[in-house]
Amino acid sequence: MKTDTDPKLLWAKRLLIYVLGLYLMAIGVVFSSRSALGVSPVSSLGNVLYQIGSSAGAPSFVNLGNCTTAVFCLYLLAEFLVLRRDFRPAMLLQVAASLLFGQLVNLASGMLSFLPAPGSYPLQLIYLLISVPLVAAGVMLYLSPNILAMPGEGLCLAISRKSGLAMGTVKTIFDCAVVALSAAASLLYFRSLVGVREGTVICAMLVGFVFKLFQKPFQKPLLRFVERETKVERALEAASQGYLTDTSGNPKIIITIGREFGSGGMEIGRRLAERLGITFYDGQIDELAAEQSGLPLEKVREMSRHRERAAFSDLRSAVYEMSNDALSPEDLLYVAQASAIRQIAAGGESCVILGRCADYVLYDDPNCFRIFVHARPDIRVKRTMAMFGLSQEEAVREMENTDRARGQYYKRYTGREYGAQKYYHLGLDSGLLGTEESVESIIGILRRWCDVRGTHPLYMR
């Protein structure tokens, strides 16, 4: 994203949002700590150490903010051990972020010192629930300027990069490990759970959910305010640079096909390509994506087959979507596939491209004809049963799970509703027409489309 804003003003805006986000998070941590029901997993160990220090009569500097800073520095040490040679000196600045956050926690503790200690469980829950939107809003704000990640996020990103695991999976493992360590420390000292309780689980479940609610209306305005793109947009723009467009002047058609599970969209696309004598792109895109991303081909194929089953719907992975520091394996795969699709489209050949958000990636390409194939649920269930040898119950479950997951994946990367007719030139009921009649109908409409455009590839004349 290019900007004409004065660099000093731009940095002032970004720093303001960054510090405001950290302060809201700090207030949320104080509220949840005061509830005595536990804090979010990433802060739970610092909270337990603070409770131990308070009980032992430690000096005043052993407060919640300083304990949080100390634990965050331990996360940074773990990040160094994970990355080793890939650890960049600039990452040491996370120490400054940890110190800043710790002091903001202390500031918030002083500001909220007038609040009474909750004397009943309902009041404890109120304190805890107040903390949830504060932490969620703070995370969204502090991530949006992309100034400096906190060590907890940095450690999870490092593990994801080194292991190839999905960010949601890494976050789950990290949260469980920190909570287990916090619980062990509490049990060893107090012989009971203090500082890490059911509130920790509640925070882990609700913060991501509330973050998602905030993200939809506020993420894009925030990014515009700080004048930056999302990490996926930036990576895709960089990956797509240098592709040459076709300058031969030969007319071409790029047909993209989205489909409901069990509608026969793949077979229709394959038959359409055969009839027109053009290339059908499906698995070849994975090969190009593997080459561009550096991911092993088998890993790419596995993720392509099961990406809808991965942690895209895991709300805890949402906090990483606004970070430009690194791409998760899922984001890396999307960028690689999308840039491969653009590379194919930039060539001189006509083709059919199946799935992979190709209709969105090529939405502004005047040569792109977008199709969505659907059918009645009962027809799709029967087709699924016949193709995969499933029972009716298994076929229904497979169809519903896959359609839901495809919709989540499509929504994540396009911001659009999967299958919404306004984004396609043609919506096709394959259950009504059948495969061969569907192909004939598409060809007829394609000819009419070429008439309107005034360009006819040889095979359409």
In short:
The chain has 461 residues and is mainly alpha-helical. The protein is built from 18 helices and five strands.
Features:
single chain, 461 residues, mainly alpha, 18 helices, 5 strands, elongated
Q: Would you write up a description of this structure?
A:
With 461 residues, the protein is mostly helical. The chain folds into two domains: 7-228, no CATH class; 238-460, Rossmann fold (3-Layer(aba) Sandwich), CATH 3.40.50. 64% of the residues lie in helices and 5% in strands. It contains 18 helices and five strands. It has helices at residues 7-35, 41-55, 64-83, 94-111, 121-143, 151-163, 167-190, 198-225, 231-240, 265-276, 283-293, 297-306, 329-346, 358-361, 377-388, 392-414, 430-433, 435-453, and strands at residues 254-259, 279-281, 351-354, 368-374, 426-429. Strands 2-3-1-4-5 form a five-stranded parallel β-sheet. Helix 1 packs across helix 4, helix 11 crosses helix 13 (329-346) and helix 15 crosses helix 16 (392-414). The longest helix has 29 residues, at 7-35. The protein is elongated and about 85 Å long. It starts with 6 loop residues before the first helix and ends in an 8-residue tail after the last helix.
